[in-house]
Design goal:
Elements (H helix, E strand, L loop, with lengths): L1 H12 L8 H29 L3 H27 L3 H24 L6 H21 L1
Helix pairs in contact: 2-3, 3-4, 3-5, 4-5
Length: about 140
Amino acid sequence: MEKKLRKKTIKGQGESRPNISVLSILKILLAMYMVTGILLLILSAMLYKMQLSESMVSAGIVLIYVISGFLGGFLSGKTMKKKRFLWGTGMGACYFLILVLGSIAFQRGINMELSRFFTTLILCTASGMIGGMAS
C-alpha cells in the first residue's frame, strides 16, 4: 500500500502546473486595455491632424482590436506554457466581453449591428488565439 502512495506522490512531483491566477489574467487584461487606450489616443490625434475618413477610422479601430487581442494571447501563452492557443482565445474572448459590457453600461444597450458584433467577436478571439500560438 505504501509503495502505491509513494509512486503517486513521486509521479505528481514531476508534473509542471500552469502558473496562472486571476491576478495574472487581470494584469494581462490591464495591459491589453492600456495598449488599446494608447492606440486610440494615437488614432484620435491622427483623425484630428489628418482629417481621416470614416472608413480609415473604422479600419484603425479593427487594427487596434487585433493588436490588443494578439498581445493578450501572446502574454497568456507565455504565462501558461500549455494549451497556449486556448488561453489566447480565452483572453481575446474576455477582452471582447469587457468591450460589450462597457458598451452596454455607457450606451445603455448594444448599439451595434449583429453582423458587426460577431465580426468583432471573431476578430478578438482569433487574434488572441494567434497570439497564444505565437508565444
